[in-house]
Amino acid sequence: MRTKLDIAKNWLPRYTGAKIDSFGDYILLTNFQNYVEKFAEKFNCDITGLHKPMQTATNSEGLSIINFGMGSSNAATIMDLLIARNPKGILFLGKCGGLKRSTEIGHFILPIAAIRGEGTSNDYIPKEVPALPSFKLHKFVSEKILERKMEYRTGVIYTTNRRVWEWDSDFKVYLRKLGAIGIDMETATIFVVGYANQIARGALLLVSDLPMIPDGIKTEKMDKAVTVKFVDLHLTLGIEAMTEIGIKGEKIKHFMY
Q1: Quick check: is 257 in a domain?
Q2: 72, 98, 174, 215: which sits with the fewest CB atoms below 10 Å from its CB?
């Protein structure tokens, strides 16, 4: 295996248990196994990779979903491995913490950019390059939200490699200075590695906690409540948006800048 593509072609099946040609042209990415289970139940399709690092399912219309795990290193890994399939577009369905008072649990965020606080993306392109989505892909997602007469938020997401930071008052002061609308561990990495690999990408984030205040820090009880109230809609919006892109066949690739 002498090239990056050689490695990806070998490792994508090894990580997921799925053959490369079994993946669809459009792919949903998630951190959560229950998203994959709900997808498989909805479309009556099999889940592959139950004993692998990543689980996946693909419906008959050529839409796949992959649970790649948590964190920026895993996000970079799946975005590298997907060059073996060369998908036409990916959408990350992630959860984030809301950082502004106007952002409430259950709100959806379409990031206009992400701050590269995780460090992983620095191995791909210089840190001065912004982490951006493919805006045409986000257009399809926003239309699906508006069709339901719902609101959504836009803004900048801060991506960190720290999972436990909610106790750190100095870090919170720093976040307030940045003015970011939300915080997560994957979005900037997906945007940057997608750009480096010339994969069209986007993110629809669900606000699952309010970590800037003590009562808003995520607990098991809170996470279960968010799952019951909002996860089905989150997944449905992603499925509808990516399916419509496939049906219309519009090019959404983000050209080099």
Answers
A1: no
A2: 215
HSE, CB side, 13 Å, CA atoms: give it for residue 127: 7
User: 11-43, pLDDT tens digit by residue?
Assistant: 999 999 999 999 999 999 999 999 999 999 999
Q: For residue 131, what is the DSSP state? A: B
For residue 256, tell me if it sits in a domain. Answer: no
Are 99 and 157 within 8 A, CB to CB? no
Q: What whole-number distance in Å separates Cα of residue 75 and Cα of residue 194? A: 10
- Quote the number of domains for the chain: 1
Scored b (16 or more CB within 10 A) or e, 127-166 reads eeebbbbbebbbebbbebbeeeeeebbebbbbbbeeeeeb
Whichever domain contains 208, its CATH number is 3.40.50.1580
Cα within 13 Å of Cα(165), Cβ side: 21
Cα radius of gyration (the chain): 17
On whether residue 253 sits in a domain, the answer given is no
pLDDT tops 70 at residue 257: no
Residue 254, in any domain of the structure: no
How buried is 73 (Cβ within 10 angstroms: 0-12 exposed, 13-18 middle, 19+ buried)? middle
> How far apart, in whole angstroms, are the C-alpha atoms of residue 20 and residue 249?
21
pLDDT tens profile 196-212: 999 999 999 999 999 99
pTM for the model: 0.94
pLDDT of residue 253: 59
Q: Which amino acid is residue 61, in one-letter code?
A: E
pLDDT digits (tens, 9 = 90+) for 74-118: 999 999 999 999 999 999 999 999 999 889 999 999 999 999 999
